[in-house]
Amino acid sequence: MDPYVVTIDGPSGSGKGSLALLLARLLGFSILDSGAIYRLAALKALNENVDLQDEQHVLGAIRTLDIHFETGDELTIPFLDGKDVSQQVRDEKTAAAASIVAAYPSVRTQLLAIQRDFFSPPGLVADGRDMGTTVFPDAKIKIFLNASSQIRAKRRYKQLIDMGLSANIVDLQNEIEIRDERDRSRAVSPLVPASDAVIIDCSLMELSQVVDLVMSHITDINNQRF
């Protein structure tokens, strides 16, 4: 079978990362956490005290972006300039900054090639917000994962508390809804399902149920091709 891409798009906190990691393990594929790439770019800008409202200054800060990922037990482990920055990239300040810099066309153009370079045999599972629409429009399998903002805030709250970080669930939900609106309304690569994506609302589903559903879909598609 030829190498292929599975894309998983959706809003923040919908469970894309956990789903992508489990699918990659089951399929034996590489994994791309595109959201982490934007967070790493934002963290680089924050570390250099760049004005996030200035597109050219942000672009200048990330021209020499040294990043890579390692596979952890439950999440991918992101490295920036050779350092494990797992906690920093999942901080709400970094998440908010990533949503800002991701709206800049020049930043998205620069990071596009980096993302596409992750695709190699036997295949790739890519999660983000525009994987199936912009980065890998010809992907064989496209999933759009969604959940209510209340559910996503609860999941995010638990994740931060488990990491030993402080969090306020009301603030988290407000930030999620603001980020959703920004992501959906941006001019470049807005957060929308690809026309050929399978849309899954996982608000009331366990992760194992989502994995089973997507794996069943992948099996069906593969059987149709051969």
Describe this structure in words.
There is one protein chain. Helix 2 packs across helix 5 and helix 8 packs across helix 9. This protein is α/β, with parallel strands linked by helices and 226 residues long. 38% of the residues are buried. The chain has a single domain, classed as P-loop containing nucleotide triphosphate hydrolases (Rossmann fold, 3-Layer(aba) Sandwich). Strand 4 and strand 5 form a beta hairpin. A 5-stranded parallel β-sheet has the order 2-6-1-7-8. It contains 10 helices and 8 strands. The protein starts with a strand and ends with a helix.
**Approximately how much helix is present in the residues?**
40-55%
Number of helices: 10
Poorly predicted regions: none
Structural class by secondary-structure content: alpha/beta
Layout of strands and helices, then pairs:
Elements: E1 4-9, H1 16-27, E2 30-33, H2 34-47, H3 55-61, E3 67-71, E4 76-80, E5 83-84, H4 86-89, H5 92-101, H6 105-116, E6 123-128, H7 131-135, E7 141-146, H8 149-162, H9 169-185, E8 198-201, H10 207-225
Question: Tags for this entry?
Answer:
single chain; 226 residues; alpha/beta; Rossmann fold; 5-stranded parallel beta sheet; 3-stranded antiparallel beta sheet; 10 helices; 17% strand; globular
Summarize this entry quickly.
It contains ten helices and eight strands.
